[in-house]
Amino acid sequence: xxxxxxxxxxxxxxxxxxxxxxxxxxxxxxxxxxxxxxxxxxxxxxxxxxxxxxxxxxxxxxxxxxxxxxxxxxxxxxxxxxxxxxxxxxxxxxxxxxxxxxxxxxxxxxxxxxxxxxxxxxxxxxxxxxxxxxxxxxxxxxxxxxxxxxxxxxxxxxxxxxxxxxxxxxxxxxxxxxxxxxxxxxxxxxxxxxxxxxxxxxxxxxxxxxxxxxxxxxxxxxxxxxxxxxxxxxxxxxxxxxxxxxxxxxxxxxxxxxxxxxxxxxxxxxxxxxxxxxxxxxxxxxxxxxxxxxxxxxxxxxxxxxxxxxxxxxxxxxxxxxxxxxxxxxxxxxxxxxxxxxxxxxxxxxxxxxxxxxxxxxxxxxxxxxxxxxxxxxxxxxxxxxxxxxxxxxxxxxxxxxxxxxxxxxxxxxxxxxxxxxxxxxxxxxxxxxxxxxxxxxxxxxxxxxxxxxxxxxxxxxxxxxxxxxxxxxxxxxxxxx
Length: 482
Hints:
The longest helix is centred in the first third of the chain and has 24 residues, at about 90-115. Helix 3 packs across helix 4 (about 90-115), helix 4 (about 90-115) packs parallel to helix 5 (about 150-160) and helix 9 (about 260-275) crosses helix 10. The protein starts with a strand and ends in a 5-residue tail after the last strand. It is of the alpha/beta class and about 475 residues long. The protein has 15 helices and 22 strands. Strand 8, helix 6 (about 175-190) and strand 9 (about 195-200) form a beta-alpha-beta unit. The protein is globular, with a radius of gyration of 23 Å. The strands form six sheets. A seven-stranded mixed β-sheet has the order 14-15-16-13-12-18-19, sandwiched between helices. The chain has two domains: about 5-250 and about 455-475, Aldehyde Dehydrogenase, Chain A, domain 1, CATH 3.40.605; about 250-435, Aldehyde Dehydrogenase, Chain A, domain 2 (3-Layer(aba) Sandwich).
């Protein structure tokens, strides 16, 4: 059994959950301890007790620890990437790429430890100085999803530690192996006991215990909309209220205009819609295509999809791995049936596949003749399912793109500077992409959306300080000027 890490110790639990390889369901990666309510409270208490000393630790100490974490993550990127791909199902190149990004994130925030700055201002009153500084908020609860089991924890854990907070980390149950491996690296880097705690388990047990604790000052959550709303309600109703940061999904559009480079547009669409098995909140599941290029685009997409290889995530030559588990596979299939029932035309894919090993294999699905009012165009599917929506012109394409309750990522393929510039200004999304896939952003820039996709300060880059620190204004009277 792989144990939880609480107050500087690896602690077992009364029950454990098997971690199953979605590429080969006969392969059990390990048994991972499920924390109880009592263990979760112990982790929170440990973080609470460790906060006073850690919040006053030197910036050099924090830098050295985070750099050490980044160094080991990068040195072991192939090993950790294979573990990630084995348990989550994204192909090996994507798994190694994600681990590399995590290492870079730890290095970035190691540098941020040394760059934390404030302001010193003159007062409107004689003889008074004003200082504005940033301080850590306290114990931070981190709740992360299964689709990026190392990168998303990294971009929450690294800034939390860099700015002097203590951490209680709850990963998604499906990806405990990656979380456990990352935790082992972090605690061996030299953190004092209690500064970082790993509590694996269900949201109903571990998550609820975190939300109900008065000792947690803040919660950073990435996951589904319903769970995000539950987190928000709990944070608002808590006494005292908790600071919250919520990332909750998307129904992202990619607009393809008549003047687009067809080959480029197809590659952007295939990458955005289907790579990582479509299990990305930034995936483009709505491809909005203007009339002049629509038919050619649809034909080229179908041809490109037919060349994609769906197989074991760790096998050479695989383009798309399996769906993460049986539950998600059933959800994907239910939406494929729903799209057909709504009148959309399934032009490619959407079929269960058999491979050499038993797994959750699904051919990527593409719908045409889709109306933006259909549920398959409104609701996040979180799988390799995309819809093509015809638009008369740019104006209608923009209107359709913005007609969604989400607002995370929005893309356009065009050779027109006029339309590209207008789209960047008028797309109702937190991130706008021109002639690139909508999925994937650099590790040093802010990540987050609008509308139903996100709530609270942005993640990543220097903007992370807005969530993980609080601003203090201090006045000093030095005597009246002569």
